[in-house]
Amino acid sequence: MTQPRTTSTELDPALRKLVIVVVLGAVMTILDTTITSVAVNTLGTRFHTSLSAIQWVLTGYTLALSASIPLSGWAIVRFGPKTMWIGSLLLFITGSVLCGTAWNITSLITFRVLQGFGAGMILPIGQTMLARAAGPARMGRVMSAVAVPAMLAPVLGPTVGGLILGHLSWRWMFYINVPLCAIAVLAAIRLLPSDEVRDRDSRLDILGLVLLSPGLGVLVYGTAQAGSGTSLTDIRVAASLLTGVALIACYVLHARRKGDAALVDVRLLRDRNFAAVNVLVFAYIGTLSGLTALLPLYFQTVNADSPLRSGAMVAPLGLGAMATTLITGKLTDKHSPRLLILTGLPVVLLGILGLTQIGPDTSNALVMATLFVIGLGHGTIMPAAMSASYQTLQRSEIPSATTATNVSLRAANSFGVAALLVLVQRNIEHRPPGSEAFTRTDRTEEVTHTLAHAFTQTYWWALAIGAVAVVPALLLPRKSTRVSAPTPDDTDGRDNLPAINSGIANKR
């Protein structure tokens, strides 16, 4: 028997404990995507291998993370959220320990894939637990809390990675995950309710898995290769992109026939609100991900900053986001997410407009202030968007919706990074001394200005892509949409998860 949907508007102790559990589990998996980014040269030296081989330490993790996301919705229904949450954390810990003991580059890449597979399911499972426990009236606040680790990644990741490399062995970049994730596992065992309701007859959509997971992974690989400097006409890049698009298109056709038994129910996109949020998030996250990849590169190539310093220069973006994130959560529960998104987007776009005006002579303080402004807008947009995506859905649709949104986020991240890196390369090639500007050590004033101009021109493209997000934002409901009572779909046997907050309260 399932529990009724909660109508409380207060964050009771049980829900607060759930938020703590999810944040503890998510923080290291998100940080791990950036903490190793500063170790490329160090790992290349230690393992005596090429830069292209070392890049697979980052790429392998990303591909495994992307490929595992589609499994999370089915796994929650089949095994229960607590079981899958703890299992994913243990898989991530195991991968982290093995990465720290790696003896050559092949073993390190293999263990990073294992680590990424566990990490890919952690955030979707956590978001599902929070969405189903909070209900529409408290969605903004819990989504703002879980957004905090994502805001910390660009602030702490490169900095922590740089400190570890400066004072400890590179292996501690992976060992540091173990004690923190162990605490998250213990907290989950103690605080999460048992998985009392599971659908043991739920069958895995094998064909959907064969189409969607490889399709997403190949697409991410192709866009990553394009962003790393490989020409779009290169056979590997073109084949990867075409194969990825074809597999995902085949999955969509398959899922439409399969209905709610599909790995991800694409019929959710018939919901105008859910579809608008996903288009918005794709355009917006693509823009912001591309910027966060470009900015450290700008500081290192134009300003000749070190990797650690370039990472610190981006920190104001994360700090600005954290300053508004928790406030946004409270406002989202009182007002329409549309209002907050349309408030934050102009702020972000104004900040990107400021980046189009910077150059080699621009003071660091002004650049950091501009990034702080972008962060303020970012912290307003994302919690509101995540809250809006669930507002018109039934509880039984949340696992599939969370999976779909995370697939969109991963694809947007890869697309944005690849698109802006390709654009900056093209802008450099069309101005003398061309592509040599990146590698020349005798940086004349002309070369420096060529590089700076290429980046500012690319920021104009980022501004245009980001502006696209305004259109779906305008399609969101003007008033907050709240489902006040469970529908029959919420109380039949298909609703395989009890209300999480009620379960914790019963344990107490």
Offer a quick outline of the entry.
The chain has 508 residues and is mainly α. The chain has helices at 13-35, 40-47, 51-68, 71-79, 81-100, 105-134, 139-167, 172-175, 177-191, 206-227, 235-258, 272-301, 307-334, 337-355, 364-390, 398-429, 436-439, 445-468, 470-474, 488-491, 500-507.
Beginning-to-end CA distance, first to last residue: 20 Å
Order of helices and strands: HHHHHHHHHHHHHHHHHHHHH
**CATH topology call of the largest domain:** Growth Hormone, Chain: A
Give the class-level CATH name of the largest domain: Mainly Alpha
Q: Largest sheet, described in full?
A: none
Give the low-pLDDT segments. 1-7, 482-508
Strand % is under 5%
Q: Over all CA atoms, what is the radius of gyration?
A: 22 Å
Shape: globular
Average pLDDT, rounded to a whole number, is 77
Please indicate the count of domains. Answer: 2
Oligomer: single chain
Please report the number of helical segments: 21
CATH superfamily of the largest domain: MFS general substrate transporter like domains
Tell me the structural class: mainly alpha
Helix content: over 70%
Count of beta strands:
0
Can you name the CATH architecture of the largest domain? Up-down Bundle
